[in-house]
Amino acid sequence: MSRGLFNIGFGYVTLGTVTVNPRDGNPKPRLWRYPKGSLINSMGFPNYGAQRVAESFSKHKKPPNPTIISVSGLSVEEIVECYSQIEPIADGIEINISTPNTAGVKAFQQPQVLTRLLGAIENVRNQAKPLWLKIPPYFNNSERENVLALVEVAMRNSIDGLTATNAKPVEEPRSSTGRGGLSGSLVYEDMIRIVADIYGYTGGKVPINACGGISSGITAWRAFEMGASSLQLYTALIYEGPGLVSNINRELLRLIKSAGLRSLSDITGTGLR
Q: Has residue 251 been placed in a domain?
């Protein structure tokens, strides 16, 4: 599957989220279209478990571009074991501590718990494999202070990059849990705000993967201006189809050329100067 995604223009692919044990996820229905090119999901990490994912992945020819695999769990021990099984087959690992749809994951949004988790991963980590942390969005000063504390922990524990951000928690009566995660265009401005904030807070020292509502070359360009080093998208692909990726790439190339720049890295953070 990842090879096909590279063929439509992605530079890297993030797969998952994978947990150490198989999970059915939350009962269906658990994915709904929402106005203005957005989605609400209440997935709950449905996956086959780390061992089966690793076995299946190993049977296929290695994709031509980097494949990042997202991992998570409900305890430090679960995430470390999942990491240990998945790391050998991945080009990098993204630790998901920010899903709004799986009870128990929020514990890792406590700085002391995240410190313990990252310390335990460091003991089994292959230093050659990049390690990313997917942080939650924030909407008030208290939440902001907590996320910035998580960023501090990440910087102290050799995290190679931050994904900002995960879906926005919302009420969803159609979900079995009564909750869901909002993604797509309706979260774009919040994502931009948080990317800019994290870039300014870290002084650009930690690469930021912008994730949330990107749907065109212009929205992608603005994310780079606000401090992103790379981008993820999913929801817009549902609405626009696979041609969206090449359209974004072509538009970005046109913008780079018209600005007289060499690469996208030349614009990272320039919108904040």
A: yes
Q: Which pLDDT does position 192 carry in this prediction?
A: 98
Q: Is the CB of residue 13 less than 8 Å from the CB of residue 63?
A: yes
How confident is the model at residue 175, as a pLDDT? 97
Domain span including residue 254: 2-268
Q: Which residues does the chain have with pLDDT short of 50? A: none
Alpha-carbon distance of 208 to 198, in angstroms, equals 8
pTM: 0.96
Contact 226, 204 (CB under 8 A): no
Structurally, the chain folds into a number of domains equal to 1
In angstroms, the CA 27 to CA 159 distance is: 34
- C-beta separation of 107 from 113 below 8 A: yes
| Predicted local confidence at residue 62, as pLDDT | 87
Classify residue 221: in a domain, yes or no. Answer: yes
pLDDT in tens, 36-70: 999 999 999 999 999 999 999 999 888 889 999 99
Structure-block tokens of residue 138:
């924030």
The string over 181-204, giving b where at least 16 C-beta atoms fall within 10 Å of a residue's C-beta and e elsewhere, is bbbbbbbbebbbbbbbbbbebbee
The CATH number of residue 153's host domain is: 3.20.20.70
